Write a sequence for this structure.
């Protein structure tokens, strides 16, 4: 199965449809939310592009293993990714419509940001980039973890042979 997002016109059309559906379902004006450039300068939430790509990856894996249904997707999302779990969950619920993952439940666990203090070199956990170091009171540091999105688990229902 060729990747649909390799074709920019298909991706733009799919994202526009998903955004319209999300707006109708939630009555949230997505343009008022944090919009970011995607695919040739058009604005959309990056959570939607992530959800579409997640569904695409799950669909490809499902095809490889001969699955007929996806029942669970479990993600670990680092706070340093700037992904808003609620937005990703809502985008996933729209992006999964009409796919093998249509009935899938999405579980999202967040990971804290781990920093190394710029001043004293101490490692500490934080919920934002400008947290105060517990050792010296310095502000912020170098991110050493919490900047990834990891697919922890996907549960498939496989055809009986």
């Amino acid at each position: 199965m060729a990747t649909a997002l390799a074709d920019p016109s298909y991706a733009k059309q799919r994202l526009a449809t998903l955004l319209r559906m999300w707006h109708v379902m939630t009555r949230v004006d997505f343009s008022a939310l944090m919009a970011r450039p995607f695919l040739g300068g058009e604005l959309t939430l990056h959570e939607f592009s992530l959800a579409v790509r997640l569904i695409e990856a799950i669909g490809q894996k499902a095809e490889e293993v001969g699955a007929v249904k996806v029942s669970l997707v479990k993600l670990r999302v680092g706070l340093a990714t700037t992904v808003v779990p609620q937005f990703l969950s809502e985008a996933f619920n729209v992006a999964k419509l009409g796919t093998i993952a249509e009935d899938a439940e999405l579980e999202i666990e967040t990971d804290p940001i781990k920093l190394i203090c710029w001043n004293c070199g101490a490692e500490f956990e934080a919920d934002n980039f400008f947290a105060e170091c517990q050792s010296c009171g310095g502000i912020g540091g170098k991110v050493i973890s919490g900047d990834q999105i990891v697919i922890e688990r996907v549960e498939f229902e496989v055809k009986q042979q």
